[in-house]
Prior knowledge:
Largest sheet: 2 strands, antiparallel
Oligomer: single chain
Number of domains: 4
Shape: rod-shaped
Helix content: over 70%
Domain Homologous-pairing protein 2 winged helix: 9-66
Order of helices and strands: HHHEEHHHH
GO biological process, one term: meiotic joint molecule formation
Coiled coil: 79-143
Number of helices: 7
GO molecular function, one term: recombinase activator activity
InterPro entries: Hop2_WH_dom, WH-like_DNA-bd_sf, WH_DNA-bd_sf
Amino acid sequence: MSAGKCSTNSAILKYLTESNRPYSVNDIVNNLHKEYGKAAVIKALEALVENGKVVEKIYGKQKVYIRDQSDLSVPCELLSEMDTRINQLSQKLKELQDTFKQSNTEFDALNSSLSVKQLNEKIEFCEKQNSGLKVRADQIKEKVGNTNTIDFNSSHDEMKRRKVAWNTRKRIANTLLSALMDGCPTDKKALMEEIGVEEDN
């Protein structure tokens, strides 16, 4: 093999190794700034495929070439960096998934809540109810009159005094009725009807 062919083969192999992605013949010619002719590139690729340095793949009518990966070794430092980067990206992906899930939950909650129009209608309904209750309260207040705490306490005390007096009189009446029953041939109910006494429950 001539020195020119070796140089072409080495240049193309180096390019495919560094880029580490598939290219067609035209891509290689253009990316190497047409330093090598198309025919020379094709011959170099055929030789590299035959030597097992490059793999040829056919997609439809087009052939692409990629560096064979079996004899490539990756430095440990590069592998460590790649692992770190993968972990970082995995963590970032998880955070994005959690954010997306939370956003979906909030979106569903908003969809299930009342719309602005519905809220305005509900507010209007409550305001009408409040107005009606206020009118009713004013009407009751007008009928009953203003009653302050002092008036209420005074009325309550008066009611208690009257209740005590009523209980006292009831006890006296029962005592007198019992005394009358001692010499009366009729029963208590008949006697009460005869003298016109009504018993409270």
